[in-house]
Amino acid sequence: MRVVIIGAGEVGESIADDLQYDHDVVIVEQDEDRADELTYSLDVLTIAGDGTEVSTLEEADVAAADMVLATTDDDETNIVACSTSKALSDSFTIARIKNTKYLDTWERDEGSFGIDHMVCTNLLTAETITRIVGLPAARDVDVFGGGCVQMAEFEIGEDCPITDQTVQEADRFASLTFAAILRNDHVEIPTGSTRIRAGDRIVVIGSPGSIREFARDLEPEKSPGESEEVVVIGGSEIGYHVCRLLEERGLSPRLIEEDEARARQLAEELPGTLVMESDATDVGFLEREHIGDADILVSTLDSDEKNLLECLLANRLGVERTVAVIDQTRYVDLFETVGIEVGLSPRSVVAEEITRFTQADTTENIAFIETDKAEVIEVEIDAESVLAGRSIQDAIGEFPEGVVIGAIIRDGEFVVPRGDTEVQVGDSVVAFVNADAIEEATEKF
Asked: What pLDDT score does 357 carry?
């Protein structure tokens, strides 16, 4: 497939890096130095020019493209680039946008603006945060099979009840699979005798009920069914959508916004949220409002430094779980090193979503582990699959090392994968796949 990517920032580069081995990728970038840089670092064709101009798109041979991805940091540029590409070709166009007002317009008439698919950074980030908030101790959560399967990643602390247990001892759930352990920057496929250590990150796949039970096992002090008390810092669009989505789940978050006019507007639009007008760095205010009693604090301010400060203040006041929205992806590891539980980069979130969409012809859904270490994929089994009509234990030997069958979805129902489970044509299989095995494993599925 020929893919033209307009914009070579973090998002565009990340997508190009994922697609370069299996597709013919062309990057259009206005900054000549940046275009030259990517020529040497990626196996792609780079063109220096304005992706909204006809001449530049003709030079990129957009007429021969199967897909055009507009991924710059400017919404209007991406919309115009897609519209111009559509005038020159029959390619499938995807636009990255931040402001949901464009998404609202596009959803009223899909295909408007010359855009076939629109990916909204702010909304995707809010949805990711909401999934994390809904699962105690989770660092990442993804949904498969229309919601009947979940993948979750948990970090194991020194005081965690399963620390120093074997996987066999920790696995007390009928519909849960320990898919992988991330340890010292490496991915390990565990066996029953693998011992879980403090500092490990555990990736599990299973039914939502089993995932929740496992999460409660990691935090036994939190009673089953107890509602999360959530504080959101910043009335940004991401902050607004986090509160809105939490309200839809029946929660009543607290939102702190410094600007009086914005706070008033949010109070009107979020009836289930307690909106407080204040400077969130005012320690006296935070103490008076008992912010330290919150289960989780989410900072969505417009500055990485401010979000870091807010989360560190929250930790000092007693908040155990903090989530920071981080504009610069390279800061994510730094934030987590100094004690922020989850650092979330909107750029990474949207890059993964677009990459996931470009691979929809081979898989139904994809979740990325630590961006590039592994993938959890959902694949519908056809008659050509090595799994079709065979038990897992008979077929798994034909897959490369680093593949774990985590769940089977049959007729919309969750099926626990065991060695003697026979996979049928039409089943959807959710599998963990190590990065080194992705290409070969996808062919086998």
From this structure: 79
Q: What domains lie within the chain, and their CATH numbers? A: 2-115 (3.40.50.720), 127-218 (3.30.70.1450), 228-349 (3.40.50.720), 354-444 (3.30.70.1450)
DSSP assignment string, 58-122: HHTTGGG-SEEEE--S-HHHHHHHHHHHHHH---EEEEEES-HHHHHHHHHSTTGGG-SEEEEHH
Overall size of the chain counted in residues: 445
pLDDT of residue 225: 43
**Kind and range of the H or E element at 46?**
strand 45-48
C-alpha–C-alpha distance, residues 150 and 409, integer Å: 12
Is the pLDDT at 362 greater than 60? The verdict is no
- Residues 52 and 55: their CA atoms lie apart, in Å, by 9
Taking CA 407 as the corner, what is the angle to CA 225 and CA 178, rounded to the nearest 5 degrees? 70
Look-up: residue for tokens 């007008």? 277
- Contacts of 213 by beta carbon, 8 Å cutoff, 6+ apart: 173, 176
Structure tokens at 409: 């979805």
pLDDT in tens, 397-438: 999 888 999 999 998 889 989 889 999 999 999 999 988 888
321-325 vs 296-299, strand pairing mode: parallel
User: Measured between alpha carbons, how far is 380 from 372 in angstroms, rounded to an integer?
Assistant: 23
8 A C-beta contact, residue 379 and residue 431: yes
In whole angstroms, what is the distance from residue 243 CA to residue 171 CA?
A: 34
**Farthest-apart Cα atoms in the chain, separation:** 65
Nearest by Cα to 69 from 59, 60, 50, 82: 82
Dihedral, CA atoms, 102, 108, 110, 115, nearest 10 degrees?
-20
- Tens digits of residue pLDDT in 179-197: 999 988 888 999 889 999 9
| Spatial distance between the Cα atoms of 35 and 37, rounded to a whole number of angstroms | 5
Percent of the chain with pLDDT over 90: 59
- Output the pTM of the full model: 0.83
| 329 residue type, one letter | T
Question: What CA–CA distances, in Å, run from 239 to 46, 257, 322, 324, 432?
Answer: 36, 10, 14, 11, 32
